[in-house]
Write a structure and sequence with these properties.
about 450 residues, two-stranded parallel ribbon, about 0% strand, metal ion binding
């Protein structure tokens, strides 16, 4: 009798070929939707230039006014509809004089805004004010509405064929292919049997695990290797106990160091002022936040990122207001505050002594040395491992700054002669003594 190879390989090749043909045939269904043309309605500029007006508004008015929300002063969008231009010129250039003259409109505006005097801007010409008013007269840009007939996921595409129908057809075709392959395999087996052809069975081989178990040398070498690898990983695991490098918790109020320390270049020690004079850097109080956010109730459009939208940042500012008890509509404190449960990130053991002022004020070390490039962090994390080895390595490499530090003058002269160096490291000046860091 004749012997032939296993026909399963042929059926697999047939299945793969049919699948490839089916995949390439589906390209006829893919069509891209044509972009809709966006149109913008023209905005009246009242004789001024809104582009220049925006620049003037941001440099002169934005500290106290917003376009669509009350701040220290009233919202200014559409202000031209409430007052005539001659009155606006007098108000902007010298509001105090206008109020003193008894002008009813000026007195009303003054009283409605908690009697907070407006800064006079005599340097702004009437044309400058025209530009600002033109900017405030622009209509608010609303989010574009959904275009009629647009493609919606799960509904239909431009060809008029539902996506669900296409997926159902594909599933049906795949099921038919499977059935056809099973039938073809059965037919081939019957034909082979009718013609006296014997299908050669697969040769039996010894399983790998059994062959491995029969070799004493391989078992011995593998056991030793397994013990060494296990000891290595156990040691590494134990050495990482208490090490929280890259720990990045979610805080109750989202605070972006990237925006504050990076984009706005706020000095670290403005918020963490205790780092200059105290052992701890301290968590800034919410009053420090309100120094700026009393006038900043929302972020700029350019602040938004693909991950965090403008609405997200604005909502976090609202959380700050709720915690500190600030009513942005009336621009006053309500007296109803609530604590913010910040999650601590850097936490040294109780037996370790670390003094921020000694490193920041005396040694002049930058915050980024230990805390990493915080100006790039959206969420603050633990940059350094803060292990004993990491601290010792820094003491061995860091030269002591002698400029303007008379405390180290005498000891530096003596130790520099002893070690034969011009500059001493923190380690050479006792930075490795146990009592320096441990009680």
């Amino acid at each position: 009798m004749k012997k032939v190879g296993n026909h399963n390989s042929n059926s697999r090749k047939l299945f793969v070929s049919l699948a490839l043909m089916l995949t390439f045939s589906l390209t006829s269904f893919a069509q891209d939707a044509a972009p809709a043309d966006a149109t913008e309605a023209p905005v009246a500029t009242l004789g001024g230039d809104p582009v220049k007006g925006k620049e003037l508004f941001n440099s002169n008015c934005a500290a106290c006014h917003k376009l669509d929300a009350k701040s220290t002063g009233p919202a200014l969008r559409g202000i031209a509809e409430k007052h005539d231009m001659p009155w606006m010129y007098k108000w902007v250039q010298n509001s105090a004089a206008l109020i003193k003259s008894g002008d009813k409109a000026a007195v009303k505006v003054f009283e409605e805004n908690n009697k907070v005097p407006m800064t006079a801007f005599p340097a702004l010409s009437e044309s400058n004010i025209d530009d600002i008013i033109a900017y405030t007269s622009e209509k608010k840009v609303e989010a574009p509405a959904a275009v009629a007939g647009a493609v919606v996921a799960g509904e239909s595409n431009q060809s008029g064929i539902s996506d669900t129908v296409i997926l159902g057809a594909l599933a049906l075709v795949m099921a038919m292919l499977v059935v056809m392959l099973v039938l073809v395999n059965n037919v081939l087996r019957k034909v082979a049997k009718a013609n006296g052809i014997v299908i050669e069975p697969k040769a039996k081989t010894t399983p790998i695990w059994k062959a491995f178990a029969q070799s004493q040398f391989l078992v011995l070498v593998s056991s030793i290797l397994l013990l060494l690898v296990s000891a290595y990983f156990v040691y590494g695991f134990l050495m990482q106990v208490g090490v929280d490098q890259n720990y990045e918790p979610i805080q109750p109020i989202h605070f972006s160091h990237k925006i504050h320390a990076g984009d706005n270049e706020i000095n670290c020690k403005y918020c963490h002022s205790a780092a200059r004079v105290s052992k701890n850097a301290g968590i800034p109080s919410l009053n420090v936040c309100m120094n700026c956010h009393k006038s900043i109730a929302e972020v700029a459009e350019t602040t938004a990122t693909p991950e965090y939208s403008k609405a997200f940042y604005d909502e976090e500012i609202n959380k700050l207001y709720a915690a500190v008890g600030w009513d942005k509509s009336s621009q006053s404190y309500t007296g109803k505050s609530q604590p913010v449960k910040w999650v601590r990130i850097h936490n040294l053991p109780d037996f370790v002594y670390f003094n921020h002022s000694q490193h920041v004020s005396v040694a002049g070390i930058e915050c980024q040395t230990c805390h990493g490039p915080v100006e790039t962090y959206e969420l603050q994390k633990q940059f350094a491992p803060l292990t004993m080895g990491w601290c010792i390595d820094c003491h061995r490499k860091t030269d002591v700054k002698m400029e303007g530090n008379e405390y180290y003058t005498k000891i530096h002269e003596e130790l520099s002669k002893k070690y034969g160096v011009e500059k001493l490291t923190a380690a050479q000046m006792g930075g490795l003594e146990c009592g320096k860091c441990h009680y």
